[in-house]
Amino acid sequence: MRYLPLLAATLSFNVFAASTPDAPHIYIQGQAQISTIADNVKLGVAIVEVDKDLMSAKQKADQTMAKAIKLAKQQGIDEKSIYGSQISINRENQYNRETGKQDFIGYRVSRTLSLTLTDVTKYPLLLQSLVNAGINEINQTEFTSSRYDSLQKKVQKMAIADAKSAAKEFAAEYDVELKGLYSASNAPMNVSAQPYMRAEKTMLSDSNSGSFVPDAYHAGEITISADSYAIFLIKN
């Protein structure tokens, strides 16, 4: 367990609270985390075609993208969770060592597709189907939780509670009493000392998450963490 000496600093005051008060105080860090099962997959894929005939490359890319979107819908993905980008066209050249010049290879035509799959059990099949349809780039695969926002708010409250509890614990060990909260933040404060924090974080397992799917590309657990920093005044 790490201990932080009681701090006392002289700083000027303005409309906003100074980083540290001109009074005895303690600087505390609260920590918390929640583990939950991933139940969503954010997938980013692309089709890239290179051809000296621009219209041919564009047609191939458009056809593959149409197939990919159709497959996504067949897997039950909501249209609101399907985003196909506009087409991107670039000239592609390759350096010729013999001539010392850039040779024209063709027009590089690409389109990207972003999907959010809400059933991780369908992920392997969807990915294989997209590749079979002509998708030739996988840009992103992120397993997430549909409850991330609500869990993030919950874990932040847990971190605040941990900071308050740690402050009481720390003050008791030094036989002093807390006077009140001076300032608080979700990010480290601009002070010279390290905050006191407990050796272990407050941890919670999300009981409302879906069941684990062992064969879904190791979807497994994800961890959501939060910190809370606070300065408490103490009585003389």
UniProtKB/TrEMBL annotation:
<dbReference type="InterPro" id="IPR007497">
    <property type="entry name" value="SIMPL/DUF541"/>
</dbReference>
<dbReference type="Pfam" id="PF04402">
    <property type="entry name" value="SIMPL"/>
</dbReference>
<keyword id="KW-0732">Signal</keyword>
<dbReference type="InterPro" id="IPR052022">
    <property type="entry name" value="26kDa_periplasmic_antigen"/>
</dbReference>
<protein>
    <submittedName>
        <fullName>SIMPL domain-containing protein</fullName>
    </submittedName>
</protein>
<feature type="signal peptide">
    <location>
        <begin position="1"/>
        <end position="17"/>
    </location>
</feature>
